[in-house]
Amino acid sequence: MTDTAATGRALPHPERDEIRLETVLHALADPIRLRIFRELSAGEGELSCSQFDLPVTKSTTTHHFRVLRESGVIRQVYRGTAKMNVLRRDDLDDLFPGLLDRLLAATELQIRRLGGGA
Length: 118
Known about the structure:
- The chain is of the alpha+beta class.
- It has helices at residues 21-28, 31-42, 58-71, 89-95, 99-114; strands at 2-4, 10-12, 47-48, 74-79, 82-87.
- Residues 1-7 have low confidence and may be disordered.
């Protein structure tokens, strides 16, 4: 499935029934992608890529967002020149009940245990 914004640019997303657990877990196994996931989980609505302060280059940031989108963790759409991101919580909660909440809780426990950010 693709989303097309007013600009005519479309980004590929897996259909809900194409999202696989192992792909989601792989996407969230990376600390940068887990950080993006946490920030999207904490926010309300869409966040642009530029709203994330990540300790990697722009091209690496683009890669991380693409992995999250192609795994079905996030949905991305263009709003003008901004690429907006939103967690596909409804799809993921329906497919894997409780998974996101457990991952968030485990991440918070790890942050407290290690005394740093994820």
